[in-house]
Write a structure and sequence with these properties.
Layout (H helix, E strand, L loop, with lengths): L1 E5 L4 H12 L3 E6 L14 E4 L5 H9 L5 E4 L6 H6 L1 H21 L4 E7 L22 H20 L2 E7 L1 E3 L17 H9 L6 E4 L11 E6 H13 L6 E5 L4 E3 H12 L5 E4 L8 E2 L4 H7 L8 H14 L9
Parallel strand pairs: 1-2, 1-4, 2-3, 4-5, 5-6, 6-10, 7-9, 8-12, 9-13
Antiparallel strand pairs: 9-11
């Protein structure tokens, strides 16, 4: 296949681009490098510098070649920032996606895989969340992703652009071959923050809340290895020959914040400095995915089901790349 990957200089997008290349496919990465890294674009992928907010440039990039599939990862993605700047997130994420989707329909692209989010579901869900569960975004970020999903429904009905909306939970880990890793600026994800604390590269962690109704009082989250996510994206393309699909993507196993600290300590052999802090408003006690749909329909199965295995790949990359893809942030 020839695939266009928007946001392919970011964490998940770069790993999906790498998996496509490993599978023998041709990849073009389109990114504005506002949050991604040029060095994260995998070797063998062609790079095109385009801001999806520029409708004309987006149209030209999509129309320049014939694509077997477009995979859309480019977006603002910080939930907390979206609560402070809701209109920025609602405008930027939806308008950039609209520009891309419109260009795809104009140039007869028939398959699009969309990086959606578990933030569509909001609230506290003690049971695993299925793709058919009620939508109730808890942030403008989640709302923006839902608006894009609804746009894709109409793009399918009117223009025949079939799409896979993949709602994933906590992406983590790194390419096991050490080619790619996680480098957000600022970093907000628990596993890399915990690793950096263990390596002495940042102050000790704060665990927000010790009295949640969980096995050790800390929040439970579903961590899915980024290469398992990549595998699911590629499998989803094959489902788009005749229909659009929506899947939740998660490991299905919830791990507490305390268990993440314990895992990093086991894998690294180092102590993680941490202290208790008050709960953060809006943090659900438990968020775990029910991925039965994607497993049954595509045969997908996470290979990295144990937290230590996920942490090990992330730790190896962080040790080898103390400044991520470049100089200190």
């Amino acid at each position: 296949m020839k695939c266009l990957v928007t946001g392919g200089a970011g964490f998940v997008g770069s790993h999906v681009a790498q998996a496509l290349l490993d599978g023998g496919h041709e990849v073009v990465v389109l990114d504005d490098l506002s949050t991604g890294h040029r060095a994260a674009v995998p070797q063998g992928a062609r790079f095109v510098h385009v801001d999806l907010a520029d409708a004309a440039a987006t149209d030209a990039a999509v129309g320049a070649e014939r694509w077997d599939a477009v995979l859309h990862f480019a977006a603002l993605s910080l939930v907390g920032v979206s609560m402070r700047e809701p209109f920025l997130y609602l405008r930027r994420n939806t308008m950039t996606a609209l520009n891309l989707i419109e260009a795809c329909t104009k140039h007869k692209v028939t398959k699009l895989v969309f990086s959606s989010t578990a933030a569509l579901f909001g609230g506290d869900r003690p049971d695993p969340i299925a793709s058919g569960d009620p939508i109730d975004p808890g942030s403008p970020y989640g709302e923006s992703k839902y608006l894009i999903e609804r746009t894709l429904v109409w793009a399918d009905r009117i223009f025949g652009l079939q799409s896979a909306c993949l709602r994933y939970f906590n992406a983590a880990g790194a390419d096991p071959k050490g080619r790619l890793g996680e480098d957000h600026r600022p970093e907000t994800h628990l596993i890399p923050l915990t690793i950096d604390a263990a390596l002495g590269r940042r102050p000790g962690l704060k665990l927000f809340g010790s009295d949640y109704p969980t096995r050790d009082g800390t929040c439970v989250r579903d961590y899915i290895h980024v290469m398992d996510l990549a595998d699911a994206h590629i499998r989803a393309i094959g489902e788009l020959d005749s229909r659009s699909v929506t899947y939740n993507l998660g490991n299905g196993l919830g791990f507490t914040n305390m268990e993440v600290i314990q895992s990093v300590e086991r894998v690294s052999g180092r102590r993680v400095p941490w202290e208790w802090a008050e709960r953060r408003p809006g943090d659900p006690a438990v968020l775990v995915a029910d991925s039965a749909g994607v497993r049954a329909e595509t045969g997908w199965m996470p290979r990295y089901q144990q937290l230590d295995d996920i942490v090990e790949t992330a730790l190896r990359w962080r040790e080898a790349h103390p400044h991520g893809y470049g100089e200190p942030a």
